Amino acid sequence: MDWIAQARAGFAGIDADAALKERALVNLSTWLTHPDFAAYRPQIEWLCASGAWSVLLDSFYQVMPFGTGGRRGAVGIGPNRMNPWTLGASVQGHCEYLRQRFPGVSPLRVVLAFDVRQFEDKRKVYNPALPNPILHLSSREFCQHAAGVYAANGVLPVILPPDSKRYVPTPELSFTIRFLRAHGGLNMTASHNPPDDNGSKFYDDRGSQLVPPEDQLMSEMVDAVAAVRHVPFADAVRAGKVQVLDDAPHRAFIDLCRHESLLPAPKADELRVVYTPLHGCGGFCAGEVLEAQGFRPIPVPEQVQPDGQFPNVTRTPNPEVPECMDRAERVGLERAADLVIATDPDADRIGALANRSPDGKGAFRFITGNEIAALLTHFKLAQLQRAGSLPAAPIVISTEVTTGQIGRIGRHFGAQVIDDLLVGFKYHADALWQIESTGQYGDVRGSVSDFVIATEESHGIMATAGVRDKDSACAALLLAEAALYQKRQGRTLVDYLDDLNRQFGYFRNELLNIVLTGLEGKVHMGRMLDALRKAPPKHIGGLPVASFEDLQDPDGRMGPFKGDTDKAARNFLIFRLAGDGIAAKVCLRPSGTEPKAKAYIEVSGPPLRAGTPQAAWDAACAVLDARVQQVATDFLTQALATIGQTPAPGADKLSR
């Protein structure tokens, strides 16, 4: 059977660039004929015979590109899927990069970590009756395969022993790289993505992900890989080419997090905290830290066990989604808890529900990522000030898409605020590294000892310079202590949030996802952003567009591109709106890890004026709530119109 001829005919019916189709055919031919891919051939032939042309085109039209720190996406067959070949090529490129980055250094060491995932073809893409080399493949096995590539290249991988029952969460990996003075790291995780996804995130010697132009250099080396050197993991272990990771870094990491404590430990049963790792590895960081500091977290029994299928989680193991905490909320209601905390599978993100009543007998309120960021920024600054240990010029770091309330809070305490970063904690880490190494970042001056906190709207917190990535462990401790501080005054975190809104202004932040899947979706996404940058809307949601900024403008504030990765990260449009006494902003960018564009919407008002009646304040907040929906609906409509589409019913639905 001439499968390539059949594929050519099948691809002809798909609306996609002809060059992409030709590239897919070349890659498909290689995977059907090269001996290295023989194990995949039965499934590829079955997909061809089944006429699954969209799946095949999307799987083969490119080699999966580097996104936020590496590759992440669906596990599957083909160069545009996560599998041992795409991982091996990435690791081979990383080895080449490390040799150039550290010439003459031997041995080079890389710390490896992995989450709980295991591929089970939940999407039912492949034929279960045929051999499938990727079925049941776990993050641990992916990582062991990577260790075999490092070992074959003379790079010493540092990894948990094969029989280990624990995991190394993302923040602990960042810390461990620094603790061991390793030259880099690899994290096999797809964070909060669906169970059948996986990914590889690469770290530098500072414990952070690479930023431009370094990520561009590594990307080019990965693209240039012609052959992958590899030895079986078991052989590498027997030959002494693998270093076993012991418990010393873990103990030091827990101690570091505990050192961030700002309050005396709670008395027995003084604060009731429910904690769930959502079947992930958060119990090995956030859970341990809470326990060690005396909070005695109440477990959600059916979600304690690490399980990459996340069987007892509603919707998705992502604490940005309130529904995933439904079981934890039930436990919280049963136990009259004050606070519910959840972490995602690799334990870098944190989510929370706060009880509305100080006696724990009320209903729970979901706390958004922006609200967690504002709460913890204010709490840490206030407690340091109260203790007389606030730096003279404290530094607070955030992003362009995180609530503007952070800036108002920081400046209230005399902080230097960096709040215009691109999305991704690698940019937070880079700003901190520049301050650490040169004493400045832009207009900010100081040292790493002036650093207080870094935040991101996607439920990410970095509260210590000893970790250079999102860290749910320190965040969980600070959040529990913030709740404890309020409870000691007969109040709740909900009361605390209300205070911040009155003092610094009510900010309503929403994320609108514009989902555009597959190769066709990627093409449409590119057309949509290009159309909006060429002809920005004049009005959005009834408010005039006061200014428009395209971060890809080489004459703009970010200057010339540092490479293709920099250009991709700066595919970012900002529409600033003003009118009717309201300030608003819409930021649009394609996701680096998921098939969608993200529109970050913010609508805000001024602080509460003295003497304003409660009813008038409530009415002013209601106006902002109504306006954010107007902005979301209108922006979605205008954005989709650029590609000849209209919003599906409910596509403009916001969080509340």
Automatic annotation (TrEMBL):
Highest taxon, organism lineage: Bacteria
One example GO MF annotation: magnesium ion binding
Keywords: Isomerase, Magnesium, Metal-binding, Phosphoprotein
The keyword Metal-binding belongs to this UniProt entry's keyword annotation: yes
One protein family per Pfam: PGM_PMM_I
Cofactor: Mg(2+)
Keyword Repeat included in the entry's annotation: no
GO biological process: carbohydrate metabolic process; purine ribonucleoside salvage
Domain annotation Alpha-D-phosphohexomutase alpha/beta/alpha: ranges: 136-222, 257-354, 369-499
Annotated family: Belongs to the phosphohexose mutase family.
Name assigned to this protein: Phosphomannomutase
